[in-house]
Amino acid sequence: MGVFDDKKFEELDWISQATEPIDSPLNEILGVIPDEINIDYDLFMNMAGDNYSLDLSVDRVILYTLRRAPGHSETRLTWQERDVISRCFTIEMSEDTILDCKAKTLTGEIKVIKITKNLDDRDLEAILGREGIDQLNNMYIPNDGTSRANDILELLGGCDDALKTRSPQRKRSIMIQRMKKLFKENEWKIKDTVLANKVGVWIYDYVMYGNLAAYSNFCRLKVMTHKGQPIYSMEEAK
Amino acid sequence: MKLLEQYAESFETSDPVFRLTLDGGGWRISPNLGHPVSRYRPQPKTDDVLEELVCDSFTESFSLREQKFVIDHHQIANSAMLEIRRSFATFLERQLDMSSPRQSKLYRWFYRELPEGYDFNNDLVVLYKYLYSFAGKDMRQLHDKHTPNAIAILKAVMEKYEQK
Prior knowledge:
By secondary structure, chain A is mainly alpha-helical. Chain A has helices at residues 7-11, 14-19, 25-32, 41-48, 58-67, 79-86, 121-125, 130-137, 146-156, 160-164, 168-184, 193-209, 212-225; strands at 36-39, 56-57, 89-93, 98-100, 105-107, 110-114. Chain B has a two-stranded antiparallel ribbon with strand order 2-3. A two-stranded antiparallel ribbon of chain B has the order 4-5.
């Protein structure tokens, strides 16, 4: 195996290699959540009870169910991922449903129903790289990080204005804009949401702390993009 | 003050029963905690102005821990007391025969420097009942005899407590 090989891509069946679907753990998470969840009084209070308004949203139902699913107690979802998963569900409630906290009863029927069983590429494209970009939003380039930021800007390409300016804020702003455009058009053909999310994190670690492993990973990924093939995985330096 | 607390002690709470509504295009269920199916509103049982004031100050909140509505009797009484304390400045603003009553020393003292204290509050309650008897709830109505008398009493109160 070479350093620049994409092991995951090579293991895909030929149809997947031809269609290049976006891979994401969100599809597995979606599969873990039941197609229909009936909510009674106790479940309602358990799900909504730690919320001061006692509102129950699809998002809360998903998080509650996921945390109790085997192997997912530690699963962490970003806001964007929660939003994508939430769109796959809807609440159905019978007319005149009454919550009686005195008698501890729920009169009527509440169901959370899965309306989408598989996330399609359009949903997943919207969250490609978002977690990393969010991290860059919190990045303050230190004095000794300017040259490292320039290294990244050169590799990202299309950031001439950022290379000319001496303002760290402007460099960061242009870097974020470039990242957003890069993932929106998926110029680097990254087809894995986890890998895409790491890009921003590597940039952050290198610019902020001079983490050379992170820079090495970023450079490897950049080299892999030259093949023009979809990228599902890469061998990371730790 | 004690009377205010006694009135507040007699209050009950709404039953914690809510009609659920589906909001946000089917994404969120809300029990509308501020609007229980049957809402308790205390009604004055006597024609005592203080009871009416305490009833007006009634508030309840839903406790998630206890899963029922709870009230803080002391806070309701304090809220009614605050209304009473505010009413003196309102009375002076509306009844002082001046072009700008807010500039007067008497108004400013009652507005800003009114002392605190249980006994003093008890005195204010008595004084409030007197003002209410002729000026009404909004402290607007003039009375040939009582208005100058009330202003004189308020001046005396200010002078007494300023010396302290």
